[in-house]
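Structure tokens please, single chain.
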Amino acid sequence: MANPPSFDPSRARLAGIAAGIGLVAALLFFHGLWRAANPVFDETHYLPAARALIALSRPTNIEHPLLGKELIAAGILMFGEGPLGWRFFSVLSGIAAVLAVFAIGWQLFHRIRPALVAALLAMFNFTLFVEARIGMLDGPMAALVLMALAAMLWAMRARRGAAVLLVLVGGLFGLAAAAKWAAIPYLAMAAMALVITRLRDSRWQWRSAIGGSGQPHFAGVATPTALILLAVPSLITYFLTFAPAFYYAFDPMTLAKLVPFQAQMFLEQTKPLASHPYQSPWWSWPLDIRPIWYLYEPVAGVQRGILMLGNPIIMWGGLVALGYGLAVGLRERSWSLLAPVLLWTAAYVPWIIIPKKIGFFYYYYLPSILICLAIAAATESLESKRPCGWPVWSVVAAGVMFAYFYPIISASALDGPDAFAQWMWLPSWP
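Here you go.
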């Protein structure tokens, strides 16, 4: 693994850049949040569940754990019924996701420019923008997974305090799973990555890999202890989020029911589903073939639309970047090129094997964010070989595309029912 370059910006400078990124993301995500004045898409499922949590009435929407709906409920309690209350914590999740991408980029590249490029690309990807402005579960889940990944990379290189950071990683993964079970495979893969890192450091000698002393990664923590530090906090934080269910007026949760209830959730999530006009196979998601209209109808007499679509520059260009990162990364043995490919693959593969009867494009949400790191790595590599502004132009191109599609991803006022047609590049998009 490559050592960081000697140039290391101060923590104050990094914090200042992160604050600037967060401010821009907040302005972008909050602007026009009220245009979709009524519940859209799956908000029709999660808002009633959040209201049931506020009233502590009864179990609702039991196929998913509680944290995502608790956050919606908290927003309603803070800001009342309406777009801000429904979506406030989704916006915060979107901001946190952008900042986590910056943190992951810094940990991988040890340079500000590619980390900043990755964060800006994530901000300009339509998927993150749309999910940051709707009260669904995927936004908090993805943000917590990204934060856990950033903390995991920090723990891997920490000279001291790795144990505390691993507790943080486990807790974040537990909260992510408490938002949506789709996060569970990432905890398992983090544990696998820890073990593989230890084996690689010890030249695949099991005895050397188990101990904690003298280890270059996750320093000072024995491998079995590290795995426990990941697993136990994740279980604790996950089950703590079920606390409100113990106070339901009807059919309250009990300690005896808590574990069997997880099996009931699994059955609900894996039961056969009717076909849906927006369903799409997993192989089509990276190709941006079948987006989803979260909204396309008149609101207060004005035609508005929200299309869950990936930014074509990022989605299609990202596939090229992944191919470049794999080929050149293997040839040059470059961790900075290979790591984003591994992260994207780890985020995408679970959706191929998860037992779901039908799939939707928004399942690709987390991989669509991580692919931004692959673009940042590829453009930085190209820039080092033939300088011509590759990183800057990638952000400019994504930003121009974002501005062009903005009216139909932000619920802006449109000219009429047929206004969508000018943005429908593929026959499968309408």
